[in-house]
Structure formats: C-alpha cells, structure tokens
Amino acid sequence: MFIARLAGVAVFDPNGDQVGRIRDVVATLRSARQPPRVLGLVVEVPMRRRIFLPMTRVTALDPGQVITTGVVNMRRFEQRSGETLVLAELLDRRATLLESDAAVSVVDVGMEQDRSRDWVITQLFVRRGASGTFRRRGETVVVGWGDVAGLADVEANQSAASLVASLEGKRPADVASALHELTPKRRGEVAAALDDEMLADVLEELPEDDQIQILGVLEQERAADVLEAMAPDDAADLLGELPPDQAEQLLELMEPEDAEDVRRLLVYDEYTAGGLMNPEPVVLPPDATVAEALARVRNPDLSPALASQVYVCRPPLDTPTGRFIGVAYIQRLLREPPATLVSRVCDTDLEPLPPETQLPRLTTYLATYNLVALPVVDANGHLLGAVTVDDVLDHLLPDDWRDRDQDEGREADRGS
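RESULT FIELD:
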C-alpha cells in the first residue's frame, strides 16, 4: 500500500458512518536497515480536529476507504518524540542509493503487513536526480527501504514541494491546522514554500507562538512582504508580540502606506476598539450610489463581516476620514434601486464607539444591536476603522482554543 494514495481517504466505522479522513501516517524510524514500523493514522474529524487511529483499530485498508473497529479516541493527536509523519516528513526527502551512490528524492512510501500482522515500511518510490537537483520528469524506480541511505536522520535536507501541493485548494484555516501539527523545522520549510498571500492568510489563523516561530525563520524582507499582505489589525497583533527593535526593523522594510496603518493600530491597547479595528473598511461618500456600494463589497479580499456594511463619510475617504455620517447595511442595499444614494439608506442613529472602548463593551454592543461589525470614531467624528465580530471572538476565546480537546478527561490511545 503506497501511503500517498491514502491522503484524504475516508475512514468509516463498522456501521458505515464516516469518522473522518486520513491526513497522515505515523511511523517510527528504527535504523537504516530495519524497516520503520507504522503505528497508526492521523485522521481529521469534524471541527478540523486531528486524532490518532492505531493500526490495531483498522480492520480494512485500501485506497478507497478505511474501516475501523468503531472504537475511536477523540483526543487531539500530538506527535511524540521518535515518531515521524510520513507524508509531512518523508516525502521529498533526499537520500542516496547504496548500490550506485546516486542521489534520489522520495516520491512515495510503501507499507505492508509482516508475518506478525504489524504494518512496516518496506519500499520507496524514488526519483533520480543529479548534483542535488531533482528533475520533475527524472527517472523513477521502486527500491527497498534498506537500499537507500540518509532517511533515518529526520533532520536531513528536505523539500516541501509534495506537502505544499497537497495543501493547494484548502482553506487557510485548514492549512493552518496542518502546519500546527508539524515540527517547528518542517513548519518553517512549508511556510517558506507558500506564496506571500497564502502564508499571510495562514498566519492569521495560527496561534501566536506558531506565528512568531514562522516569522523568525523567514528572511526579513520576506517577513515584511508577508506582513504587508496580512490584515493590518492581524499584522499589528503579531508585531506587538515581537521585541520592539525587531518589530521596528520589519516596519521599516514594509511599504510606507502599509506600515502607517499598522503603526496607528500599535498605539492602542490590544483589547480596545483601536487595537482590534481594521483600518480599511469600505468607505463611500454620501453621493455614492447603491450600485457603487454593492460593487465595492463584492471584493473577494474582504472578509464576510467587513463586507456586511458600508461606512458613509465626508471626504477624505481614507481613514481617518472626514466626518462620519452613518452605516449602510448590505441587506438594505440589496433591497434598493441601484441609483439610490447610500446617504438615503444609511443608519444615522447607530452610535459609533471611541477607540479606547474596552473589549467587554464591544461584545455587549455587538450583541445588543445584532451586528457583525461596528464603526470606531475619534473625538472629532472621524472614522478610524471597524471592529468585526471575528476579531472580538478571537480575543474572547482562551489562548489555546485551537488545541483544546473536546474530551479532556480521556486518555490517549496509542499502539505500543
């Protein structure tokens, strides 16, 4: 069974109900000559939780489906010392054929059951290369595990091409979940292989410790480019966790316009409206039409919360704007003729909040008026930005909310 074919395969219980999908295979590397033993599968269940399914609980295994005994421990998977994630850490690894001393890279890994019914890695599907450069269409060959050298060292040089390819098309939150499960070294390799826009979106979904670790392995110019691609409030939160001198160096490398937005947010406390707001909401003048407003909120780069309403202000329209007039909600805009002026349909009774407003007040405000975003205005009536409900939730939830187990009292179940 070649393991790459198992990626994304559905896992079912004996009754035919789907448990989740395979995201990786856990093995333990013993020596260069002794085949690695496969311990189990990493299965992604609902809510993007990744759990460990021991091979002893697998009753049927093929590229189309996997059947379990029905007894599944829902505790979150945590990689232990000595364990290797085959898809994340073995694919694209560089090695040497012992017979010819030729350089190869691992394309796939084959496992089979031995006489004791244990699953072990016995074969490798490799691509030949030359001088450390691997041709995409180079010769491929199947060899035994013992026919190559250089794989027992998990810190060996490794490309991230296959793992990055497997993440294409996934939501940033799902990619973040996959990165969070990797070792710091492998996480840095994969992050370095992602483009700036995707890495920016993924960083916004990761815990702060992972964000800082990834930013630390990037070259400073690349780190600045990624920060520019992030939402200004998320970039400000991340820079606020760095030492002041490091944060200032990155700000100096950013484009002045992007850096200015972030600097304005860094002035405010993290748990205030000013610290949470996005300084780039949709702002239109009072003589703009409903058609113009709907065209602006169609921007795919806007989050659903930020696109839910348009802020009507006097020029200038860049924050801090001219005098704030009111809010036009997208539901109201959809019911009006395209030529209608937004100033005629905006809510002028909604009281904006000052940037010093504390998090508890923001939460109460959103709940009271059933809003997904709210305007932040300074003492002179200038719009500074908008706080969205997703940013408020991020700061209300515990720091470790991504890692919390639904069944904290249950013991992890690993094959010995």
